[in-house]
Amino acid sequence: EAGLVLDPLSPNLAIARSVALWFAERHEEALAAARELTEAEPEFPAAHALRADVAATIGRHEEALRSATIADELGRGDQMTRMGCAWAFGRAGKPETARALLEAYERRAKNRFISPTLMAVGYAGVGDPESALRWLARASEARCMWFAFAPFDPRLALLRTDPRCAVILSEAGL
Predict the structure, then answer these.
(1) Of 131, 128, 169, 163, which Cα lies nearest the Cα of 148?
(2) Distance (Å, whole) CA 163 – CA 59
(3) For 78, phi and psi rounded to 5 degrees?
(4) Buried-most residue among 19, 35, 89, 117 (CB within 10 A)?
(5) What is the pLDDT confidence band of residue 159, given thresholds at 50, 70 and 90?
(6) Sign of the C-alpha dihedral, residues 35, 40, 41, 42?
(7) φ, ψ of residue 94 in degrees (nearest 5)
(8) Helical spans, DSSP H, in 10-113
(9) CB within 8 A of 96, min separation 6: which ones?
């Protein structure tokens, strides 16, 4: 909040605020902040991906699909945006679209680094806990920076009910 007072036009600070609200389960506020950001920064793919994720979290599937489609078009090649889209597509009833993104990143992972945490997010979105947990374990082993958010990322909430997830998080000190 303080950063936005100093720089109210910063899209990065605005997205950080929206994520913080989302992670704090203040979903309506997070969605409102994400909407404001997509209106102010219509070419910012991460803002559309976040809007899609928050909307999907609270069952606003039409909005989630619209925002995920925009984010996917704007964010070609950006794995953070695209795996967020995969999660939103999966949750909002388009698992085939989500799986296509996941398969493309599975192929890329053979030749370059792909965030295992973000892959876990994508697989959680399509309801594939086995693949999601496999990638989450890889994230722990790789000390992936996004793995630090696993205990409270809403996209991984369903995994956290699985005892295997608790073991992965516990072994990492989370």
Answers:
(1) 169
(2) 26
(3) -90, 110
(4) 89
(5) very high
(6) positive
(7) -125, 60
(8) 11-23, 27-40, 45-57, 61-74, 79-91, 95-108
(9) none
Give the predicted TM-score (pTM) of the model: 0.86
Calculate Rg over the CA atoms of the chain.
Answer: 15
Q: How far apart are CA 43 and CA 23, in angstroms?
A: 24
- The residues near 44 (Cβ < 8 Å, ≥ 6 apart) are 11, 15, 37, 38, 74
Specify whether the CB–CB gap between 119 and 83 falls below 8 A: yes
Question: Tokens at residue 151, please?
Answer: 């205990």
Q: In whole angstroms, what is the distance from residue 124 CA to residue 143 CA?
A: 19
